[in-house]
Write the structure tokens for this entry.
Amino acid sequence: MSTQTGPALDTPSRGHAFVAGPKGLPLLGNLPQFGKNPLAFFELLRGRGDMVRWRFGRNRCVFISDPDCIGELLTETERTFGQPALGVAFRAVLGNGLIVARGRDWRRKRSLVQPSVRPKQVKSYAATMASSAVELADAWSDGQRVDIKREMAALTQKIAVRTIFGVDTPADSEAMGRAMDVAQLEIGKEFAGIGALLPDWVPTPGRARIRKAAAVIDSEVGRVVARHRDGETERPDLLSRLLTAVDESGEGLSDEEIRDETVTLYIGGHETTSSTLVWAWYLLSRNPRVRAALAEELDRVLGDREPGFEDYAQLTYAQAVVKETLRLYPTIWLITGVAKEGARLGGLPIEEGTRVWSSQWSTHRDARWFPEPEEFRPERWDPEDGDEIAEYAWFPFGGGPRVCLGTRFAMVESVLILAVLARRFELDVEPGVIEPVPSLTLQPDRDVLATVRAR
């Protein structure tokens, strides 16, 4: 155990100092406030200071908001900060995949999975991304009313099924989609509720639902894995690459590991992109100037043709729209780590066992790093005339050694889908504020209904 306790922990260094957070309840700490509205609670903590003490049940916690400290947390992961224990719901869905794995096990799995999502491989998936979006565009018509949340979910499911599994049957995407919807909901409920403090062995209705959903996911992935193993032809999909990957000792991934990494990639390629696109359409509908600027770029770069991977680098404003959407509505809305012995942040020692939290939601909306933080202004990302943005003030994909491996996949997919659809249509989202709901990813609190307008 660390011997650095007591008053020494509160000694300011490099301008940082610990401050007290809101007073909590016995046993529960600040869990009731956090559970009621995690995003508002994080903004409350940010208002107290850059390093705020609070309690999650009996667990000692520190909430950090300064980009320098966030960068230290992200880059020191696996050395002086470990992964916290995750809830039953989270583990039931993701197993011991890259997001959950630790230490040597994590390093081995990363080395096996990373080649499947390198830029060269993402380029090979781009045609599937664009063609799937074209299929949706061909099905839309002027004046049609659509549920954007459902449409984007169906589209990114189709892309995930095609690029990851190499199949294209409705049963694959529909069964996985329904199970993942349950998983999203139950993970959010457990994480922000009393379930976060309950031992694993305590049965609850939510845990029963998540296990049932996980069983569906296991069955679907297992069926597709078996089909791939029995196949004699080489396939270009992600799953096939995982099945043939071997580590330095010549050992590949087990069936259980294949399942866990496949589900992790599925969530990254479907859930996160779907959510990002929903929020992008919502923001574009409420900002005609930005929508017009995006249309101008698409007309100039693409003309009358559909986009391909080679257009991605030229679609700088479309990229900025996605980045600005991820700033305002980051799909992944928090990161956590547990201090090991000798951990430090902002020059201050962090007592071993302390859980350190940070939130993309609150940091991305901090006026110190982003002037007019509530404004949807893609121009701030202009490579020549944009704002000077501090490193780790924007971290929708995490950072450091555990940065999301699917970052480029998600960016290319989002930009190409946006380019295909926005080149042909405008989406007028129905009036009314849509609130974000933090679950596994940041989701809209209701259906997002819109009218399709042909350009």
